[in-house]
Structure formats: structure tokens, C-alpha cells
Amino acid sequence: METAAPLCGIDEAGRGPIAGPLVMAGVILHAPLEGLNDSKKLTEKKREALYARITANAAYHIVRFSSQQIDDDGISACLSKGLKEIMKVLGEADYLFDGNSTFGVSGLRTQVKADADVPEVSAASILAKVTRDREMVALADTYPQYGFEKHKGYGSAAHIEAIKTHGYSAVHRRSFRLKALQPTLF
User: Using an 8 Å Cβ cutoff, are 67 and 19 in contact?
Assistant: First the structure.
């Protein structure tokens, strides 16, 4: 009798920020875990506690792309590479990626809002977000003038003002064009 391939949930954190990495995670849970949800719906304290429980009770792989890689290759190419790497490392599984695009990668399914509805994708969402948030907090020590620990690299008003004052840092995505930073024509 053949056993079904395990479900591997995949999600990312950091697709939209203007600074910092894109982080992707794939998770195959070994046992059900209580409290899983879309990482954005959980407090930082809950995410941190769940991170430890997930990594202790799952096969997982985390992939990271720097702002430089995103600028050089494009966000879609990075997502495609990340999906392929997760699938290669985690092996035979039924892959489910949060969202509605496979980014040209065959052998996986997509589902909008899977990060809230499917425990394996929720777990991947948590691993990706906690990994990225930790890196942004560490980057705040190197670049304190940008406030990365607060906005995690997203284009908040304070972040945009910091860029206007200090210019771009080495971890800003120069390929992401912000209207607020473009010269006016008039």
C-alpha cells in the first residue's frame, strides 16, 4: 500500500518592503500544532513561541534572498528560485504555496489565504516572518537611522523620511520605485 506524500506548505515574508531580504519557508509538520495562523494575525510573542515549536516538530527549509539579489534578478525570479530550492531540499511532497501564482514552477498548487487556512502554510508563514523580522531588527543595529526594528523595511512615512534624509543604505531595494522619492516634474 502506497502512502500519500506529506503536505508541504510554503509561504514568504518580505515581498513588498523597500529594504531587507525576501524570506521563504517550506514546512512539513510531523504532528498537529495548536495556535497556528497567518503570521500577520499573531503577536510577535506568539510567533516566536510557535517558531520554536514548529522547528522542533517539522521538516523545514528556509530560503533567503538579499535586497541585492532582488534588485539583480527581480522579485519573481527570486520567488521561483526559492520555490525550486525548497522543493529540491524537502523532496517528495504535495506542495502548496500561499497565493495565486506558481511563478513558473511546476509540481505545486497554490491557494489564496492558505496561510490562514492550512496549518502547514501557516507554519511556513511563521518561519518566514520570524526569520525576516529577526534580520530586520539586527539590521537596525547597523543602520539605526532607518528604524528597521519598527517598520521592518516597509515603506512607512518615517522610513521614507529617513531615506530622504540619509539616502539609501546597502540593504535598500533600489529597483523598487517609490512615488514619494521620485523628483517632481513641476
Answer: yes
